[in-house]
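Quick one, T. Sequence first:
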Amino acid sequence: MIDRLIEIPTQAGAMETFIAHPSADARFPAVVLYMDIWGLRDELFDIARNLAVVGYYVLVPDLYHRQGRIRGVHVDGAGRMISFHHLDAARQQAALAPMKQLTVPMVLEDTAAIIDFVSMEQAVRPGPMGCFGYCLGGRLILYVAGTFPERFKASAGMHGSDLATDKPDSPHLVGRNAQGEIYMGFAALDPFAKPEVRAALAESFKGCAFRYHPQLHENVQHGYALPERDIYDKRAALSDWEHILAMFHRQIPPGFAAS
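Structure tokens:
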């Protein structure tokens, strides 16, 4: 396993990015992990490592890089990350502040920089890429898949927020331009995944050029898929990964060393 923090050049300056991939002398499909509102941290790096070991080149970019180095994790007495709805109002507002300064054009600009970067990496196999994300990242993957359909063929979002709005650039509308496959994991107790939101995505994606896989997890809350979260649900998270890895194998098969 090779992992490291690097800086990827973007139009707005250097973007700190965590990278993990197998140490074998081979080329691996690139997969981007889009962070949630809390920013980069070891929890996301471990998720990237777990995916990398099966044959992928995984990148975790710091989408807050224009604002400095933001790390917003709050931990309880048991060492678990405290969920947003368990924080007091002041800490909730502090957590939301960086996200409010992050725009979709910024993310797409950074994604274009990532595409340029991986095109020059010897360990990356040319061709289709994948992406996945949580919360904020679960929303951003729809913008990425819909904006770069020729590159991102396998996209997954877990407990995404604000997925269907009345704005003309709503994620559920931009995502219609995607290709390949999209998987979305929803928590039944998530206020961001109400029946009308899930229905809006399903209706919007009817007849599109990609295969859509929604999955609703009963009795779990927003944030269920993150392993260090106080409301982590292992069964739901593993169910997500069962479907995501199957999608990746279909669309971006893992790379392995030549025998």
